[in-house]
Specification:
The protein is built from five helices and ten strands; from the N terminus they run ββββααβββαβαββα. It is α+β, with helices and mostly antiparallel strands and 234 residues long. It is globular.
Length: 234
């Protein structure tokens, strides 16, 4: 919705009573299939490194900002960098059944004054890929941003050539907004960045769909989904 001011100029809709949001600072989140803990290299590093090194090759790092670490010391540096990067609040994702750290994700590009942030630095070990715990981890972060902190916008960014990440964003209910061309150089190659978002007005529908998809009765005894997430969205 737009309005006009006293000069007949078109202006944006008012946001009554708006105040800057708090910064994300939760110690963690508990779900059915996973829990999130603030990323601590001392507690989570060994498990994450073992999980990432269990992958048979480095195809999961093709569109990452850096190449897969070459050895254990480099992996330790990688985990340290994820935990200490400025302007981020990073979490280790603990898969409930095994109790093992199985990936990480972070709140980043936090613009509290505008009520916008990004969920990014998402990297799953093989244990978490195509697992309901991975979806739940991102749901817990979305719920914290919108329901607990009152953010207006949550973003998702990825290499525009990373089709699995783009599909994951759409599956979760993000809306594609466009491509930032020549946005970065990663691993010595050009990166065009695809942008997605969910707005606070869209969140209730996305939340209801995720709640319904994550319900235990939507999975059989082998953990296979009975209905796709898209089937629950209106």
């Amino acid at each position: 919705m737009t309005e006009t001011n006293a000069y007949g100029q078109i202006v944006g809709a008012p946001v009554p009573g708006w105040t800057p949001r708090q910064l994300p600072d939760a110690a963690g989140f508990e779900g059915r299939y996973c829990r999130l803990e603030r990323l601590d290299p001392a507690r989570h590093g060994a498990g994450l490194i073992a999980g990432f090194r269990a992958a048979p090759d480095d195809r999961d790092w093709t569109w990452w900002r850096t190449a897969r670490p070459a050895d254990e010391p480099a992996f330790r540096d990688y985990v340290d960098s994820m935990a200490t990067a400025p302007g981020r609040v990073a979490y280790a994702i603990i898969e409930a059944a095994s109790g093992q750290p199985a990936g990480h994700a972070a709140f980043m590009n936090i613009a509290a004054a505008n009520g916008a942030l990004e969920i990014g630095s998402i990297n799953f070990t093989p244990l978490l890929r195509r697992h309901r715990a991975g979806t739940e981890a991102l749901f817990l972060m979305l719920r914290h941003a919108f329901d607990d902190l009152g953010y207006r916008r949550v973003e998702w960014q990825c290499n525009s050539l990373n089709l699995p990440s783009r599909a994951a964003a759409l599956r979760l209910g993000f809306t594609f907004e466009g491509i930032f061309r020549q946005n970065a150089v990663t691993q010595g190659r050009n990166r065009d960045t695809a942008w997605f978002s969910i707005l606070d007005s869209e969140w209730p529908d996305r939340r209801a769909a995720l709640d319904a998809w994550l319900a235990p009765d939507n999975f059989d005894d082998a953990g296979r989904q009975r209905r796709k997430l898209s089937a629950f969205r209106t």
